[in-house]
Hints:
About 85% of the residues lie in helices and about 0% in strands. It is mainly alpha-helical and about 100 residues long.
Amino acid sequence: MQKLNTADLENMMKEGKWDKVEAMLDEYLAGELSQEDKGEAYVTFAQLYARVNNHFSEQYLNSMNETLDALRKIKSKEAEVDSQIDVAKVQEKIQKMN
């Protein structure tokens, strides 16, 4: 019985090489495996899939948090500029009064 190379499988999944993942699993499952070994392979694949899915979810969440931080900075700068404009208008009005 050949051993399923889970490290290669996980790397291919992270890289989005789904055709190669499928081919690797098909080749492994086509070999002479007991039902127990096939079941173990399916469980291993499900675990890898969950880990890879979590990896992409974490990347997405990090990206969204970075975007939110950037938007907060923009909003802060916008408020700062608005504040400066208001001060400038008040100063202008005061000067016109003199």
